[in-house]
Automatic annotation (TrEMBL):
GO terms for cellular component: cytoplasm; extracellular region; plasma membrane. It catalyses: an N-acylsphing-4-enine + H2O = sphing-4-enine + a fatty acid. GO terms for biological process: ceramide catabolic process; long-chain fatty acid biosynthetic process; sphingosine biosynthetic process. Zn(2+) binds at H94, H203, E440, Y479. InterPro entries: Ceramidase_alk, NCDase_C_sf, NEUT/ALK_ceramidase_C, NEUT/ALK_ceramidase_N. It comes from Grus americana (Whooping crane). This is Neutral ceramidase. Belongs to the neutral ceramidase family. The gene is Asah2.
């Protein structure tokens, strides 16, 4: 038995004008909302409350070092030494449709237009609030673990790299992706459901890089379905049951199961360079199972949800035993790795290869870069040398065969471009060991890491450990491929920033943590070098907020394009209002709800809310016009099972008003559509 607490809090942040984090496409900025982003927190304490472990899964691209340091700072001021570097794991789901701008290392500024304080604050506050809620609701309960296979939901997007791994190793596995879902179920002492964490390796990139609506993608939709199912009668984002679908070793795993096709000609581009005969690599895109990206998100999310539901129902293997956590900071640009008794190798200063700029079949890069590039391109190299300086010979040699595009470890203006100091962390909850990794391990890298950690536990008297990888934790260091995959330099390998021996270094480090946990010598682990915190205010190319303006003879919230009078299930009800910048609302309230669908109740002569902006069936679009004008369009995709009756759509916003040249303030307003009827047929 343990003390258990679960909590969920909004961490959406600004849904307009902020670049979305994931595809590294500066043109992909937020322009509305499909689903809200949440932080989901789980606290496990032993019954005498002497030890605690916190696991957080947040609907964000990844956890950045700056984000982690600020969250831990806030926890320390609230709770003293209760929640610390070693016992708090922060993991990102890796959605590619959440606001960016929460990084202190310069490389990430390029695509997310700097450090954007409102974006960072929303995530910090959301994570802390979710932990607060879990902390306040601790109760006696039990943990159960279960595992099962998820079909038809992934494919390996770099199969040619995977094939470089030794045949003897590949023959031990039936697939080139990990299809296993591991689930941790939480109930209180009366058997009441509290929540669950599921770990499954898949990229949340069912929504592609043409999307401008903030959302949590396929795994977020799985959370949404599970929470809606358990919190009956509640609106999305409400209710006490918390379901997290967390990331794992998803480095080379795509949900776009139809595979890569040339957008222009329709032929397959499943080749080592992911390139098309006409238009090259930029035309090669992977397709999901649905007829558009929304449909694909729904299908993959539902697959994951249905498997989780089945595993949850049948979970019977109880997790018991002590709580132990271990954490170290490591300078990853200078680790000596003993491969065997006679052979020692080293990691490198961080650098990105040419294929990094090619992107992947889930989101192609700019320019004419192709994957699998082991030669540099003189044209781009020259531009880089002029702008950023040429990589040193030492870095070039260390990273071979990677042709270096950005020698980020040697770039320090205005601040370092990439981290040197990285977190390694393992938390053991009885027989369950969670390896918190700082990035994206590929399928085979993850298998090697899990196996090495399991062996370490076995050989020090802690057999039968369930070892899982939690991805995108604590600090972002891109990808981690195997040494063999590294040799062919596709996107994942070009983004393995500490060189060919990155994986071996991590395996050595995590084995050290596992050994300390098994032998109960965690207190003797060196803390390692503390990561830097750069003094950065709000440095950003995001346009400043200006006063909003309504058209002549109109006011904010007026309807510009009305709904129809009648709809059927399956139709889309749509209304356009005179709008204002949604960023005003994010700065006023962390949990501002932009829209409501309401149903008329004749018995009480009142309107009841049936959907909000976190609902999968509603879409909130913001369109920027000139000189402070903008429109808002709300769509409601009327789902099956909607009761016939009279409905309306409401829009809630804030407009910025100028008091003087230096002072503005925000004024709340709302708009309402005409009433419309939904008929059965």
């Amino acid at each position: 038995n343990y003390l258990l607490g679960v909590g969920r809090a909004d961490c959406t942040g600004p849904v307009a004008e902020i670049p979305l984090m994931g595809y590294a496409n500066p043109g992909q900025v937020g322009g509305g909302l499909l689903m809200r982003l949440y932080s989901r927190a789980f606290i496990v304490a032993d019954l005498d409350d002497s030890k605690r472990v916190v696991f957080v899964s947040a609907d964000i691209g990844m956890v950045s070092q700056r984000l982690r340091l600020e969250v831990l700072e806030k926890l320390k001021s609230k709770y003293g030494d209760l929640y610390r570097q070693d016992n708090v794991i922060l993991s990102g789901t890796h959605t590619h449709s959440g606001p960016g701008g929460y990084f202190q290392y310069t490389l990430f500024w390029i695509t997310s237009k700097g450090l954007i304080r409102p974006s960072l604050n929303a995530i910090v506050n959301g994570i802390v609030k979710s932990i607060d809620i879990a902390h306040q609701n601790m109760k006696k309960g039990k943990l159960f673990i279960n595992r099962g296979t998820v079909e038809n939901s992934q494919m390996n997007r770099s199969p040619f790299s995977y094939l470089e791994n030794p045949a003897s190793e590949r023959s031990r596995y039936s697939s080139n992706t990990d299809k296993e879902m591991v689930m941790l179920k939480m109930v209180d002492e009366n058997g009441q459901d509290l929540g669950l964490i599921s770990w499954f390796a898949v990229h949340p990139v069912s929504m592609n890089n043409t999307n401008h609506l903030v959302n949590s993608d396929n795994v977020g939709y799985a959370s949404y379905l599970f929470e809606q199912d358990k919190n009956k009668g509640m609106l999305p984002g409400e209710g006490s049951f918390v379901a997290a679908f967390a990331s794992s070793n998803l480095g080379d795993v795509s949900p776009n199961t139809k595979g890569p096709f040339c957008v222009n000609t329709g032929e397959s581009c499943n080749n080592p360079q992911s390139t098309c005969p006409v238009g090259g690599a930029t035309m090669c895109m992977a397709m999901g199972p649905g007829n558009d990206m929304f449909d694909s998100t729904r299908i993959i999310g539902q697959n994951i949800y249905l498997k989780a539901k089945e595993l949850y129902k049948k979970a019977s293997q109880e997790v018991t035993g002590p709580l132990i956590s271990a954490h170290q900071w490591v300078n990853m640009s200078d680790v000596s790795v003993e491969l065997n008794a006679t052979h020692t190798v080293k990691t490198c200063k961080p650098a990105l290869g040419h294929s990094f700029a090619a992107g992947t079949i889930d989101g192609v890069g700019a320019f004419n870069f192709t994957q699998g590039s082991v030669e540099g391109d003189p044209f781009w190299d020259e531009i880089r040398d002029q702008l950023l300086g040429e990589p040193s010979n030492e870095t070039k040699a260390c990273h071979k065969p990677k042709p270096i595009l950005f020698s980020t470890g040697e770039m320090t203006r205005p601040h370092p471009w990439h981290p040197d100091v990285v977190d390694v962390q393992i938390a053991a909850i009885g027989s369950l060991a969670i390896i918190a990794v700082p990035g994206e391990f590929t399928t085979m890298s993850g298998r090697r890491l899990r196996e090495a950690v399991k062996k370490e536990f076995d050989s020090h008297g802690t057999p039968r450990m369930d070892v899982i990888i939690a991805g995108l934790c604590n600090v972002y260091t891109h990808y981690i491929t195997t040494y063999e995959e590294y040799q062919v330099q596709r996107y994942e390998a070009a983004s393995t920033i500490y060189g060919p021996h990155t994986l071996s270094a991590y395996i050595q480090l995590y084995r050290g943590l596992a050994r300390a946990i098994a032998k109960n010598t965690v207190q003797d682990l060196p803390r390692g070098p503390e990561p830097p915190v750069f003094a950065i205010g709000n440095i950003t190319l995001v346009p400043p907020l200006i006063a909003d303006r309504a058209p002549v003879n109109k006011t904010f919230g007026d309807v510009l394009q009305e709904v129809r009078q009648q709809y059927q299930v399956g139709d889309v009800a749509e209304v356009t209002f005179v709008g204002a910048n949604p960023r005003n609302s994010a700065e006023n309230a962390t949990e501002h709800n932009f829209l409501m669908v309401e149903r008329y109740a004749s018995t009480s002569d009142s309107w009841d809310v049936v959907q909000n902006d976190a609902s999968w069936d509603t879409r909130f679009y913001w369109t920027k016009g000139l000189l402070g004008r903008s429109n808002v369009t709300v769509e409601w995709h009327i789902p099956h099972g909607t009761e016939p009756g009279v409905y309306r759509i409401r829009y809630l916003g804030h407009y910025k008003k100028k008091l003087s040249n230096t002072h503005t303030f925000s004024v709340p307003f709302e708009g309402t559509s005409s009433a419309f009827e939904i008929t059965t047929q």
